[in-house]
Amino acid sequence: MRILVIEDEIYLCEALVQILKGQNYIVDFDTDGESGLDDGLTGIYDVIVLDIMLPKLNGIELLKRLRENNIKTPVILLTAKGDINDKVEGLDSGADDYLAKPFNTNELLARIRALGRRRGEISENNSVIIYNDILLNTAEMKMMSGNKEVSLTLKEKDLMEYLMINSEKVISKERIIEKLWGFNSEAEGNYVEVYISFIRKKLKLINSGTSVYTVRGAGYILKKGENNV
């Protein structure tokens, strides 16, 4: 799971990043609202942990802009304020959860896990994702359709998970690279093409009615179809 932390208190931000990385999450962070908005709009994150009081752009406005741009990433709001009005405004603006400072880190981790389970029709064991006729078991790195099953490599599993969570949306090569290899990676577009090819072959092996389509000049989209083209 990839998490974005947007928090301007440097020590708290650094502590959160270390705690989350200790749980084997991939973590990026920003310390102001404008940078946080830019990263949030990429749509590559599974959960965003967002402070309300931020420089340049406050958390509520940032959240509103994410939702206006159809970014559905689950958001946990953090704030030092205990006023019920702040909580209501945050939830009305599109937040999925709310945690007032100071908070217990175990509670934050539990809430992150809960939001992660909601995303992409993930089952209670947090390891199964379903779209159309495909069942992806992320723990066992296997993909199934009907009574047929195929094993996936780690990168194939990560790519298929990302495509399924964002099914029926066009995803650019750049976003796939950022999600699978990271912002500072030297991975190129042909890396994505190779793994898309692998995924298409494995969808055919299990006779899936789901396809990965190329949208010329834009990227790829996973949706119902007959041919993997």
Would you give an account of this structure?
The structure is a single chain. The protein is of the alpha/beta class and 229 residues long. It has helices at 10-22, 33-40, 59-68, 84-92, 105-118, 154-165, 173-181, 189-205; strands spanning 2-6, 26-30, 47-51, 75-79, 97-100, 128-131, 134-137, 142-145, 148-151, 210-215, 219-224. A five-stranded parallel beta sheet has the order 2-1-3-4-5, sandwiched between helices. The protein has a four-stranded antiparallel beta sheet with strand order 6-7-8-9, covered by helices on one side. A hairpin with a 2-residue loop joins strand 6 (128-131) and strand 7 (134-137). Helix 2 (33-40) runs parallel beside helix 3 (59-68), helix 6 (154-165) packs across helix 8 (189-205) and helix 7 crosses helix 8 (189-205). The longest helix is centred in the last third of the chain and has 17 residues, at 189-205. It is elongated and about 55 Å long. 29% of the residues are buried. Residues 121-125 have low confidence and may be disordered.
